[in-house]
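Case study.
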Amino acid sequence: MFNFLTLKFVKMKKVLVLTAKPFAPVAVEKIKKIVNEAGYEFSLLEKYAGQPELIEAVSDADALIIRSDKVTREVLEAGVNLKIVVRAGAGYDNIDLDAATEKGIVVMNTPGQNSNAVAELAMSMMVYMARNLFDGAPGTELRGKKLGIHAYGNVGKHVGAIAKGFGMEIYAFDPFIPKETIEKDGVKCVDSAEELYSTCQYVSLHLPANEKTKKSINYQLLSMMPACATLVNTARKEVVCEETLLKIFSVRSDFKYISDFAPDCIGEIIGKYEGRYFFSPKKMGAQTSEANINAGIAAANQIVSYFEKGDTTFQVN
Ligand SMILES: NC(=O)c1ccc[n+]([C@@H]2O[C@H](COP(=O)([O-])OP(=O)(O)OC[C@H]3O[C@@H](n4cnc5c(N)ncnc54)[C@H](O)[C@@H]3O)[C@@H](O)[C@H]2O)c1
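After joint prediction, the assembly is written out as follows.
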C-alpha cells in the first residue's frame, strides 16, 4: 500500500543556480532540464542585491551552481542542507574552501568548459592593442611576434593554438606540465618565468590566483620584456603586483597592459597613460553563450553524478 508517512519524509533535492551575473537564458534552460530530469527541484536567483539575499536563498538548497559569486563561510553556514557547490568555470578563489571542507561540503569546478571563450578574448585584446585601440592610426601585426604563455593549462593551450593561426612564435612556461606535452603542440617550453618575459614582446597570463601566484607578476619580470611590451591578463587581477605595474607604466613608455579586470589602481592609470591600457568594463572572458552552456551543463551533470553515484571527479577541496 502507498505509504503517505514515508512520502512525508522524502524531500526532493533542491539545486539552486545563484548568479549575480546571469547565465545566457539558453544555458539556464539546459541546466533546468538536467536538474528536473534527475527528479530534483530547480531554483534560480539572478542579479541578487547583495549577501543577505544570497544567504536567505541558500537556506534550503542541497546544491549550488555559481559563477563568480562569493561563497563565504557565512553563506556556507546558512546553507544547512548544502552538500555540493559547483563553480561553473575554472577559478574557484571566490569560495571559502576551508569552510566548505570543515562542513563536509564538496566543491567542484568545471575545468576547460570556457577556455576557448577566454582564449579568443585574449587574442582579440592583443589585436585591439596592436591596432592602437582602433583609433585609425597605423598599428602593428601579430604575425612573427613572440608570444609568451604564462601557465599552459586549459586556457593557455587554447591561446597557443589560436596564436599559431596568427603566425606568432609561441613560448610557454608552466613548471607543472611536462616539457614534451608543451612541445608536441609546437610551442617552445622555457625553464623559467624570467626566460619567458625576457624573450617575449607579448605575455599572456593564464595562472590561477593562489598564495604562490598573487602579486607574482612583478617589476623584475615586467622590466625584462623586450621593446613594445604588452602584458595581457585574462587570468586574475590579483596575480599582477599593482605597485610595480604603476612603476613600469611610469618608467617604460613602450609598456602596455590589457586586462579583463580593471586594477585597483585604475585611478592612477586613466588620464596618465592614454593609449597604453584597456580594461574590460565587466569581466567578460567566459561571457559567451557557448561557454555558459558548456559550463552550466557540466555543473548540472556533475551535481547529478555526485548525488546519484558519489562521483567526485573535479572536486577541488
Ligand atoms: N577572464 C575570465 O572570465 C576567466 C575565465 C576562465 C578562467 N579564468 C582564469 O584563467 C586562469 C587559467 O584558467 P584555466 O582554465 O586555464 O586553468 P587550468 O587549471 O586549466 O590551468 C592553470 C595552469 O596554471 C599552471 N600553474 C599553476 N601555478 C603556476 C605557476 N606558479 N607558474 C606557472 N604555471 C602555473 C598549472 O600547471 C596549470 O597548467 C585562471 O586564473 C582562471 O581563474 C578567467
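Observations recorded in class. The radius of gyration is 22 Å. The chain is about 35% helix and 15% strand. We will return to this complex in the next lecture.
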